[in-house]
Backbone:
């Protein structure tokens, strides 16, 4: 039987903030736990994540929407940087600008969301907004979701989910930290499955093929 394992996967990481998700991916790569390399980092603004990426010796591009003001042009510029770096999988890591995904990247873009989709997703639902909403509704369980990305906010097929309990007296900060611990497990797992060729998108469902 032919192995589904593939060569080192070339990643493009898109971020807008502190770069903790990028750092987590790099740690897994360095430890030999993830058959991947970060080929390029694209940031929507000059942020701490840019500094992290440069310290790691990565190729970094900053694409400011306010300097372009046209979604199509903005999206095409991002696509050109990804193409130039021969990216095979794009990982959104707290990327707060809207990127219109071109057909050639369909099924090759993932995102990590700090809640159990399809609840608490959509435009404006990011970071602490998500955790505040979870606490406000009295949910007893939260978690994170890795999903393929389409051109609808948080709407793509789910790859991996991990849960955490919502505790009595939780604050958004406390819940966020507990969820992030699970994000650090879930995202590398999803990337690894993709690298091994074990993910099959079947309509709205992602099927994990045996290893």
Residues:
């Amino acid at each position: 039987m032919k192995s589904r394992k593939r060569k080192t996967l070339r990643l493009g990481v898109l971020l807008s903030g502190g770069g903790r998700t990028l750092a987590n991916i790099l740690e897994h790569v360095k430890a030999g736990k993830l058959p991947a390399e970060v080929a390029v980092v694209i940031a929507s603004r000059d942020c701490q994540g840019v500094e992290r990426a440069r310290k790691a010796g990565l190729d970094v591009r900053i694409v400011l929407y306010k300097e372009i003001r046209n979604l199509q042009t903005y999206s095409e510029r991002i696509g050109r940087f990804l193409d130039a770096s021969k990216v095979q999988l794009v990982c959104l890591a707290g990327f707060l600008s809207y990127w219109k995904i071109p057909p050639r990247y369909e099924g090759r873009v993932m995102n990590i969301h700090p809640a159990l989709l399809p609840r608490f997703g959509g435009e404006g639902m990011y970071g602490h907004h998500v955790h505040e909403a979870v606490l406000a509704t009295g949910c007893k369980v939260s978690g994170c979701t890795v999903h393929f990305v389409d051109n609808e906010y948080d709407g793509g097929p789910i790859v991996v989910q991990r849960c955490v309990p919502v505790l009595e007296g939780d604050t958004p900060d406390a819940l966020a930290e507990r969820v992030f611990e699970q994000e650090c497990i879930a995202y590398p797992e999803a990337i690894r499955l993709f690298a091994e060729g074990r993910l099959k998108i079947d309509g709205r469902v992602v099927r994990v093929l045996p290893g």
